[in-house]
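$ fold --in a.seq
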Amino acid sequence: MKILVLNAGSSSQKSCLYEITGKNLPKTSSKPLWEATIDWTASNDYGFMEITANGVEKEFKLDPEKRQAAMAKMLETLTAGDTKIIENLSEINVVGHRVVHGGSDYAEATLITEEVKTTIKNLIPLAPSHNPNHLEGIEAIEKVLEDVPQIAVFDTAFHNKMPKEAAIYPIPYEWFEKGIRRYGFHGTSHKYCSQKAAEILGKPLESLRIITCHLGNGASLAAVKNGISINTTMGFTPLEGLMMGNRSGSIDPAILIYLIQKHNFDAEKLNKMLNKESGLKGILGKSGDMRQVIIGMNKGDEKAQFAFNMFIHRLRCCLGEMLASLGGLDALVFTAGIGEHSAIVREKTCVDFEFLGLKIDKEKNTNAGMNTDISTPDAKVRVLVVHTEEDWAIACECWQRMNQGL
């Protein structure tokens, strides 16, 4: 089965073509036959596309005003030139899409219909940087592969079983009945990494209490018990929770009232400040990239050090919340860009949790490979570094759905 995966971010697009053969899913992830990445922030003047297939890398400049044409160009590289991997697009059996917000209606991978598209569209106000791009990708595929089934894999689905006490906000209950609740995000990553953690530990997922730390430009934690997400840090939108690259995370909501009353803020101005100009970028003043923060720290930049300290402080606080939900801990998992690659973030996060029996081996942490245990031998709580593979997880969800007959 050939599965095309489209993973659209707020300013990027990653696509992969996988082939899964046989009657069962492979126990380990497969490398894609073809990969494409589009970065719309590469330059003020153009987007940048990179294609990898057949051991060949191709690069293209794209017109940012013609995103649909860019999608068509990307698909063209599957069947033409040095990156040709199939004879015809009709060889693709199914297309899987990562969709950030699916609301409360979808708890599993779902065949995309007009009704599903309408739901994704109606939820644009709750994921304005992502859901429009998902619709764009779905509609682009419809034009060139109109008879091929498309499946949505929702970031919110994994958190759908959160107990009500974790999902409902302490505001008048009528607003929950109107859809204002905690949905949670990064679900595909949290689900994959909790499963991979159980595999690394050689224990049934259903027997474990795990906290997964998806730390990237966007960041969230999930408390996973018996394979189910019972709490997470993101909520109604991806803004709640941890301090992030450009997002504030949770703040006193009265600040917003104050800014409206005293400083003439409106919804647009608040949204821009909280989602684009806060977090690490808001404190450092120039970049929300953790790599730049650490470079600044190493140069003695006091503001960079302060931004880092804030990030770690808020991360530890949120870890405490997840611990309280689980009532104990078997494994702490770090994943995504920061979680996988920043040894100092892992070290400083863990240092004050030794009272739980959580200890990391400094050498293992400094030289951590992917999908490894960096704990000391005597640690009661295992600390793992897991390479999140959202695209492969989406492909697996599509394979399973297709084999269930849609």
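$ fold --in b.seq
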Amino acid sequence: MVGIGYRKDFAADFAESNDMQPSFIEVAPENWIGVGGYWKKQFQKALEQYPLFTHGLSLSIGSPDPLDFVFLKQVKQFLRQTNAVLYSEHLSYAKCNNAHLYDLLPIPFTEAAIHHVANNIKQVQDFLEERIAIEIVSYYTPVAPELSEIDFINAILQEADCDLLLDVNNVYVNSFNHQYNAKKFIEQLPMHKVKYIHMAGHEKVADDLIIDTHGEAIIDPVYDLFAFTIQQLNRDVPVLLERDFNIPELIQLQGEINRLRDIKQQILQPASYANIY
């Protein structure tokens, strides 16, 4: 399965055209909770055709603030009403002292943060009555680290007993910016916890800095890292193509979807893949 992030930018064309045929769609619940009128009708059309995966933006799992259970109640209702397959969120924080920062900020790699975040994840899973997947996010400077990134992530996954959303592009971005080996990083992750994969493009802004933008096509080294990831998994998991702006023609997005599908098939079903030629 390879899906696409559902965007209002192409919703009308998506409903009327066969140029793009993903296996599923993904939305951020907070962008669609309470939406009515024209956009509700467009979204409902998409839901009638495709399974829904969800990826939140504002839960702020790493915030020092208490969890927002009013918001979580809305999320729970949305997940039930749309029959969402999975709910995922970012391993980051986006608010402090009830001020929303409109950015996904890195959590300090500390023992105290591990326990705080893991406890929040447990509360969310108990409230929603389902497991959630947490995404490894891109970051541009570590904040007072006591541990390595990989040890921090693995400790949270173990203590919280949650699933992992593996964003392959984020691992590539972080490995480039912080000068570590992306494949060795992936080898150290608990691959049995990976329930979902994100793929996206980025922008190189300096010789030593690339930014995770979701506004460009996926580059070959990220496709290569994706193939390595599928080899390590040795099983099929849903994969999402993210494109948040600079949206090209739908047929171009379908080309990226096809390439991701082909890579998966080559690795997981090499014999049947050879037979189609």
